[in-house]
Amino acid sequence: MAGTMQRSRSLPTGCATAHPIWSDVMEINYGNTIPISTIDWHGRVSIVFFLRGCPYRCPYCQNYELLKENNMVDVSELEKSIKKSKPFVSSMVLSGGEPLAQKAASMHLASFAKENGLLVGVHTNGFFPKVMGEMVKEKLVDKFFIDVKAPLDDTRLYAKAIGCHDFSLSLKPETVLENVRQSILLTLESVDIELRTTVFRDFIGSVDDVSGIARSLLQLTGNRDVPYVIQQGVPDNAMLESMRSMEPYNRDEMLELAMAAHEFLDNIYIRTREKGNEKVKFESI
Ligand code: SF4
Protein backbone atom coordinates (compact mmCIF):
# COMPACT_ATOMS: atom_id res chain seq x y z
CA MET A 1 0.00 0.00 0.00
CA ALA A 2 0.91 3.65 -0.31
CA GLY A 3 3.33 5.39 1.99
CA THR A 4 2.10 7.70 4.72
CA MET A 5 2.79 11.08 3.28
CA GLN A 6 1.33 14.22 4.76
CA ARG A 7 0.06 16.99 2.56
CA SER A 8 1.26 20.45 3.27
CA ARG A 9 0.23 22.98 0.69
CA SER A 10 2.81 25.58 -0.13
CA LEU A 11 2.28 28.68 -2.20
CA PRO A 12 5.25 30.70 -3.42
CA THR A 13 5.36 33.89 -1.35
CA GLY A 14 3.69 36.82 -3.03
CA CYS A 15 3.02 34.84 -6.17
CA ALA A 16 -0.42 33.90 -7.38
CA THR A 17 -0.28 30.64 -9.31
CA ALA A 18 -3.06 28.55 -10.78
CA HIS A 19 -1.41 25.27 -9.79
CA PRO A 20 0.38 25.52 -6.46
CA ILE A 21 2.90 22.80 -5.79
CA TRP A 22 1.52 20.41 -3.19
CA SER A 23 3.95 19.66 -0.40
CA ASP A 24 7.51 20.97 -0.33
CA VAL A 25 9.52 17.85 0.32
CA MET A 26 8.20 14.39 0.19
CA GLU A 27 8.95 10.88 -0.70
CA ILE A 28 6.98 8.84 -3.17
CA ASN A 29 6.44 5.12 -3.14
CA TYR A 30 7.80 4.77 -6.63
CA GLY A 31 7.71 1.98 -9.19
CA ASN A 32 9.18 3.09 -12.49
CA THR A 33 9.08 5.58 -15.36
CA ILE A 34 8.53 5.49 -19.10
CA PRO A 35 10.16 8.75 -20.25
CA ILE A 36 8.32 8.83 -23.60
CA SER A 37 5.18 6.80 -24.29
CA THR A 38 2.62 6.96 -27.09
CA ILE A 39 0.32 4.22 -25.79
CA ASP A 40 -0.66 5.35 -22.31
CA TRP A 41 -2.72 8.32 -23.54
CA HIS A 42 -3.72 7.66 -27.13
CA GLY A 43 -3.16 10.69 -29.33
CA ARG A 44 -0.57 12.16 -26.97
CA VAL A 45 3.07 11.63 -26.12
CA SER A 46 3.50 11.28 -22.37
CA ILE A 47 5.93 10.67 -19.61
CA VAL A 48 4.43 7.92 -17.44
CA PHE A 49 5.08 7.29 -13.75
CA PHE A 50 4.07 4.01 -12.15
CA LEU A 51 3.45 4.42 -8.43
CA ARG A 52 3.42 1.52 -5.99
CA GLY A 53 0.54 0.19 -3.93
CA CYS A 54 -3.10 -0.63 -4.70
CA PRO A 55 -6.09 -1.63 -2.58
CA TYR A 56 -7.12 -4.34 -5.08
CA ARG A 57 -5.51 -7.67 -5.99
CA CYS A 58 -6.85 -8.31 -9.49
CA PRO A 59 -5.75 -11.85 -10.40
CA TYR A 60 -4.75 -10.65 -13.89
CA CYS A 61 -2.66 -7.72 -12.64
CA GLN A 62 0.44 -7.33 -14.82
CA ASN A 63 2.13 -4.89 -12.48
CA TYR A 64 1.83 -6.91 -9.30
CA GLU A 65 5.52 -6.35 -8.53
CA LEU A 66 4.38 -2.83 -7.61
CA LEU A 67 2.03 -4.24 -4.96
CA LYS A 68 4.71 -6.05 -2.97
CA GLU A 69 7.35 -3.84 -1.48
CA ASN A 70 7.83 -0.15 -0.85
CA ASN A 71 10.48 1.89 -2.62
CA MET A 72 10.52 5.41 -1.27
CA VAL A 73 12.29 7.99 -3.42
CA ASP A 74 12.53 11.73 -3.10
CA VAL A 75 10.04 13.58 -5.25
CA SER A 76 12.84 15.68 -6.72
CA GLU A 77 13.99 12.60 -8.68
CA LEU A 78 10.65 12.46 -10.47
CA GLU A 79 10.66 16.21 -11.00
CA LYS A 80 14.02 15.86 -12.74
CA SER A 81 12.52 13.19 -15.02
CA ILE A 82 9.64 15.53 -15.92
CA LYS A 83 12.09 18.30 -16.80
CA LYS A 84 14.11 15.86 -18.97
CA SER A 85 11.08 14.57 -20.88
CA LYS A 86 9.39 17.96 -21.17
CA PRO A 87 10.84 18.87 -24.62
CA PHE A 88 9.50 15.63 -26.10
CA VAL A 89 6.09 15.14 -24.46
CA SER A 90 2.84 17.04 -24.08
CA SER A 91 1.54 15.24 -21.02
CA MET A 92 2.28 13.32 -17.87
CA VAL A 93 0.38 10.16 -16.96
CA LEU A 94 0.18 8.74 -13.45
CA SER A 95 -0.33 5.00 -13.41
CA GLY A 96 0.49 2.10 -11.17
CA GLY A 97 -0.47 0.32 -8.99
CA GLU A 98 -3.13 2.78 -8.02
CA PRO A 99 -1.59 6.26 -8.09
CA LEU A 100 -4.41 7.89 -6.12
CA ALA A 101 -3.61 5.67 -3.13
CA GLN A 102 -0.81 8.25 -2.72
CA LYS A 103 -2.87 11.40 -2.67
CA ALA A 104 -0.15 13.89 -1.77
CA ALA A 105 2.28 12.42 -4.28
CA SER A 106 -0.27 12.45 -7.07
CA MET A 107 -1.32 16.03 -6.35
CA HIS A 108 2.26 17.14 -6.12
CA LEU A 109 3.31 15.54 -9.40
CA ALA A 110 0.18 16.78 -11.17
CA SER A 111 0.76 20.35 -10.06
CA PHE A 112 4.46 20.15 -10.96
CA ALA A 113 3.57 18.85 -14.44
CA LYS A 114 1.00 21.63 -14.85
CA GLU A 115 3.56 24.23 -13.78
CA ASN A 116 5.75 22.85 -16.56
CA GLY A 117 3.04 23.21 -19.17
CA LEU A 118 2.05 19.54 -19.44
CA LEU A 119 -1.42 18.05 -19.52
CA VAL A 120 -2.12 15.49 -16.80
CA GLY A 121 -3.79 12.10 -17.15
CA VAL A 122 -4.46 9.58 -14.39
CA HIS A 123 -5.03 5.84 -14.75
CA THR A 124 -7.19 4.83 -11.81
CA ASN A 125 -9.30 1.96 -10.54
CA GLY A 126 -11.87 4.47 -9.26
CA PHE A 127 -11.52 3.55 -5.60
CA PHE A 128 -10.66 7.08 -4.44
CA PRO A 129 -13.46 9.44 -5.53
CA LYS A 130 -12.57 12.04 -2.89
CA VAL A 131 -9.02 12.37 -4.20
CA MET A 132 -10.36 12.59 -7.74
CA GLY A 133 -12.82 15.27 -6.64
CA GLU A 134 -10.06 17.28 -5.03
CA MET A 135 -7.86 17.02 -8.12
CA VAL A 136 -10.75 18.12 -10.32
CA LYS A 137 -11.48 21.05 -8.00
CA GLU A 138 -7.84 22.14 -8.16
CA LYS A 139 -7.81 21.70 -11.96
CA LEU A 140 -4.90 19.28 -11.72
CA VAL A 141 -6.18 16.64 -14.14
CA ASP A 142 -7.21 16.81 -17.79
CA LYS A 143 -8.23 13.21 -18.26
CA PHE A 144 -9.10 10.26 -16.03
CA PHE A 145 -8.83 6.72 -17.39
CA ILE A 146 -11.15 4.75 -15.10
CA ASP A 147 -11.28 0.95 -14.86
CA VAL A 148 -14.71 -0.62 -14.94
CA LYS A 149 -13.79 -4.18 -14.11
CA ALA A 150 -17.26 -5.73 -14.14
CA PRO A 151 -20.91 -4.56 -14.29
CA LEU A 152 -21.42 -1.73 -11.80
CA ASP A 153 -24.37 -3.50 -10.22
CA ASP A 154 -22.82 -6.95 -9.89
CA THR A 155 -21.05 -7.31 -6.56
CA ARG A 156 -20.25 -10.98 -7.15
CA LEU A 157 -18.41 -10.37 -10.41
CA TYR A 158 -16.67 -7.22 -9.16
CA ALA A 159 -15.45 -9.16 -6.12
CA LYS A 160 -14.03 -11.82 -8.43
CA ALA A 161 -12.34 -9.22 -10.67
CA ILE A 162 -10.56 -7.42 -7.84
CA GLY A 163 -9.30 -10.58 -6.17
CA CYS A 164 -11.64 -10.98 -3.20
CA HIS A 165 -11.73 -14.74 -3.78
CA ASP A 166 -8.28 -15.61 -5.13
CA PHE A 167 -6.36 -13.36 -2.76
CA SER A 168 -8.77 -13.22 0.20
CA LEU A 169 -9.10 -9.46 -0.16
CA SER A 170 -11.13 -8.04 2.69
CA LEU A 171 -12.51 -5.01 0.80
CA LYS A 172 -16.30 -4.95 0.65
CA PRO A 173 -17.34 -5.13 -3.03
CA GLU A 174 -20.38 -2.95 -2.22
CA THR A 175 -18.04 -0.17 -1.08
CA VAL A 176 -15.81 -0.62 -4.12
CA LEU A 177 -18.79 -0.37 -6.48
CA GLU A 178 -20.15 2.71 -4.72
CA ASN A 179 -16.73 4.39 -4.98
CA VAL A 180 -16.33 3.56 -8.68
CA ARG A 181 -19.84 4.85 -9.45
CA GLN A 182 -19.10 8.07 -7.56
CA SER A 183 -15.77 8.48 -9.37
CA ILE A 184 -17.45 8.22 -12.76
CA LEU A 185 -20.28 10.59 -11.87
CA LEU A 186 -18.08 13.28 -10.38
CA THR A 187 -15.71 13.36 -13.35
CA LEU A 188 -18.26 12.90 -16.13
CA GLU A 189 -19.11 16.56 -16.59
CA SER A 190 -15.85 18.16 -15.49
CA VAL A 191 -12.92 16.51 -17.31
CA ASP A 192 -12.31 14.10 -20.18
CA ILE A 193 -12.75 10.51 -19.18
CA GLU A 194 -12.16 7.12 -20.69
CA LEU A 195 -13.94 4.14 -19.13
CA ARG A 196 -12.26 0.84 -19.79
CA THR A 197 -12.47 -2.87 -19.21
CA THR A 198 -9.62 -5.32 -19.68
CA VAL A 199 -11.02 -8.67 -20.78
CA PHE A 200 -9.65 -12.15 -20.13
CA ARG A 201 -11.10 -15.32 -21.58
CA ASP A 202 -12.86 -17.51 -18.99
CA PHE A 203 -12.36 -14.88 -16.30
CA ILE A 204 -13.95 -11.47 -17.01
CA GLY A 205 -15.13 -10.43 -20.43
CA SER A 206 -17.72 -12.83 -21.80
CA VAL A 207 -20.35 -11.34 -24.10
CA ASP A 208 -22.74 -11.29 -21.13
CA ASP A 209 -20.17 -9.59 -18.87
CA VAL A 210 -19.38 -6.85 -21.38
CA SER A 211 -23.03 -6.33 -22.22
CA GLY A 212 -23.73 -6.03 -18.47
CA ILE A 213 -20.94 -3.47 -18.05
CA ALA A 214 -22.24 -1.36 -20.95
CA ARG A 215 -25.81 -1.57 -19.62
CA SER A 216 -24.68 -0.50 -16.15
CA LEU A 217 -22.69 2.42 -17.61
CA LEU A 218 -25.68 3.67 -19.57
CA GLN A 219 -27.84 3.31 -16.49
CA LEU A 220 -25.36 5.31 -14.41
CA THR A 221 -24.44 8.04 -16.87
CA GLY A 222 -27.57 8.27 -19.02
CA ASN A 223 -25.17 8.86 -21.91
CA ARG A 224 -24.74 6.48 -24.84
CA ASP A 225 -21.71 8.52 -26.00
CA VAL A 226 -19.50 8.04 -22.97
CA PRO A 227 -16.12 6.75 -24.31
CA TYR A 228 -15.76 3.06 -23.55
CA VAL A 229 -12.65 1.02 -24.34
CA ILE A 230 -12.45 -2.77 -24.33
CA GLN A 231 -8.82 -3.77 -23.83
CA GLN A 232 -7.43 -7.14 -24.84
CA GLY A 233 -5.98 -8.65 -21.69
CA VAL A 234 -2.71 -10.52 -22.20
CA PRO A 235 -2.26 -12.79 -19.20
CA ASP A 236 1.38 -13.88 -19.80
CA ASN A 237 2.47 -12.10 -16.65
CA ALA A 238 -0.74 -12.33 -14.59
CA MET A 239 -0.42 -12.27 -10.80
CA LEU A 240 -2.43 -15.51 -10.58
CA GLU A 241 -0.20 -18.14 -12.10
CA SER A 242 -3.05 -20.31 -13.34
CA MET A 243 -4.20 -17.46 -15.63
CA ARG A 244 -0.91 -17.18 -17.49
CA SER A 245 -1.69 -19.92 -20.03
CA MET A 246 -5.07 -18.43 -20.99
CA GLU A 247 -5.36 -17.47 -24.63
CA PRO A 248 -6.11 -13.78 -25.18
CA TYR A 249 -9.24 -12.89 -27.15
CA ASN A 250 -8.41 -12.31 -30.82
CA ARG A 251 -9.45 -9.17 -32.67
CA ASP A 252 -12.62 -10.74 -34.14
CA GLU A 253 -13.72 -11.80 -30.68
CA MET A 254 -12.98 -8.29 -29.39
CA LEU A 255 -15.25 -6.91 -32.12
CA GLU A 256 -17.98 -9.31 -30.99
CA LEU A 257 -17.64 -7.91 -27.48
CA ALA A 258 -17.90 -4.39 -28.89
CA MET A 259 -21.11 -5.41 -30.68
CA ALA A 260 -22.51 -6.66 -27.39
CA ALA A 261 -21.70 -3.34 -25.72
CA HIS A 262 -23.19 -1.43 -28.65
CA GLU A 263 -26.70 -2.34 -27.54
CA PHE A 264 -26.17 0.31 -24.84
CA LEU A 265 -23.23 2.50 -25.94
CA ASP A 266 -22.13 4.09 -29.21
CA ASN A 267 -18.62 5.47 -28.60
CA ILE A 268 -16.66 2.22 -28.33
CA TYR A 269 -13.00 1.40 -28.94
CA ILE A 270 -11.11 -1.86 -28.89
CA ARG A 271 -7.44 -2.07 -28.03
CA THR A 272 -5.48 -5.08 -29.25
CA ARG A 273 -1.89 -6.16 -29.83
CA GLU A 274 -2.79 -6.79 -33.47
CA LYS A 275 -4.11 -3.34 -34.36
CA GLY A 276 -3.60 -1.03 -31.40
CA ASN A 277 -6.35 1.45 -30.56
CA GLU A 278 -9.36 1.36 -32.94
CA LYS A 279 -12.67 3.15 -32.81
CA VAL A 280 -15.29 0.58 -33.76
CA LYS A 281 -17.29 1.56 -36.85
CA PHE A 282 -20.42 -0.50 -36.36
CA GLU A 283 -21.87 0.36 -39.76
CA SER A 284 -18.95 -1.45 -41.45
CA ILE A 285 -18.96 -4.63 -39.35
S1 SF4 B 1 -4.75 -4.44 -12.12
FE1 SF4 B 1 -5.88 -4.35 -10.20
S2 SF4 B 1 -4.38 -4.89 -8.61
FE2 SF4 B 1 -3.23 -4.35 -10.45
S3 SF4 B 1 -2.77 -2.19 -10.19
FE3 SF4 B 1 -4.67 -2.31 -11.40
S4 SF4 B 1 -6.33 -2.18 -9.92
FE4 SF4 B 1 -4.44 -2.66 -8.77
**Estimated structural class:** alpha/beta
Bound molecules: iron/sulfur cluster
**Span of the ends, CA to CA:** 44 Å
Question: Largest beta sheet: what is the strand line-up?
Answer: 3-1-2-4-5-6-7-8-9-10
Number of separate structural domains = 1
The total count of strands amounts to 10
CATH superfamily: Aldolase class I
Q: Any low-confidence stretches, pLDDT <50, length ≥5?
A: 1-17
How would a crystallographer describe the biggest sheet? 10 strands, mixed
Question: Would you identify the CATH architecture?
Answer: Alpha-Beta Barrel
Q: Overview of this structure, please?
A:
With 285 residues, the chain is an alpha/beta fold. 29% of the residues lie in helices and 21% in strands. The chain is built from 7 helices and 10 strands. Strands 3-1-2-4-5-6-7-8-9-10 form a 10-stranded mixed beta sheet, covered by helices on one side.
Topology, pairings included?
Elements: E1 27-37, E2 46-51, E3 72-74, H1 75-85, E4 91-96, H2 103-115, E5 119-124, H3 129-137, E6 143-147, H4 155-161, H5 173-188, E7 192-199, H6 207-221, E8 228-232, H7 251-262, E9 268-272, E10 276-279
Helix pairs in contact: 1-2, 3-5, 4-5, 6-7
The structure holds iron/sulfur cluster.
Iron/sulfur cluster (SF4) binds next to loops.
Please give a handful of descriptors for the protein shown.
TIM Barrel; binds iron/sulfur cluster; about 280 residues; disordered N terminus; about 20% strand; alpha/beta; globular; 10-stranded mixed beta sheet
